[in-house]
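Sample A.
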Amino acid sequence: MPTPVTIRPATPADIPTIATLADIIWRQHYPAIISMAQIDYMLAQRYNPTALLHQISGPDQWLDLALAGEQVIGFTQYYCNAPGEMKLDKLYLLPDLHGQGLGSQLLRHVVAQAQARQCTTLVLAVNKHNAKAIAAYTRNGFTVRDSVTVDIGHGYLMDDFIMVKNIG
């Protein structure tokens, strides 16, 4: 039986915790997928206090924390992408907790949030070489809709699958 998690909205006071957790997760999970230089660049770009504050307090977007007891073990960030469509932008758990069903719990939470906002589609982007995440999303009903390569600056690319799940 998966460990139950408590999921709650992040607040500005949680920003340092989110940035630290992202740093830990990315440095453990992504070196086999992207370079350390790209990891450093993307962490600085996406997990600085200004970016995180926007993700917490921006209109039609949410960042929620997953807690086991009092310990923050992961987070998810999502936003309204288009009419009827929600974009799952981030879903991260401490790597030691992978394979316990916690990611699926977070996904169910995001699906419920999307449905509450009358979204019928949940979409995400995942690195084409992130086999573990692709397998988890596939187990949870996502299918590949597209393949994209996006220039994110400084010579770095995001080489992703766009995956989608009908939640209507």
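Sample B, a different protein:
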Amino acid sequence: MKNERIYKMSFASVYPHYITKAEKKGRTAEEVDTIIQWLTGYDQKGLKKQLDTKVTFETFFDEAPQLNPNVSKITGVICGYRVEEIEEPLMKKIRYLDKLIDELAKGKAMEKILRK
């Protein structure tokens, strides 16, 4: 399975790339954390624990307190795939996060990113 590699990657190894992408466009690490917390239900302490223990993407999403009920409102193309058409549940969650970080880096307002 070609997705196996990303599922086994440490979330903590990718997290700095999310921060860098946001900061290059004048956004903040706090905004990245807000997006991750909105999507997964982690609080700051829970997110820090996941980063400190270097869990895989698979574990990160498996242990997420609760996926936001508004994730179905996340639509569009990321990495050449339409998010709403991705069938593999874990890949869909990963791409949801990618899409939200992408929207942040493109300057979209937090209110719109968080589908309020």
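Observation for Sample B: The mean pLDDT is 95.
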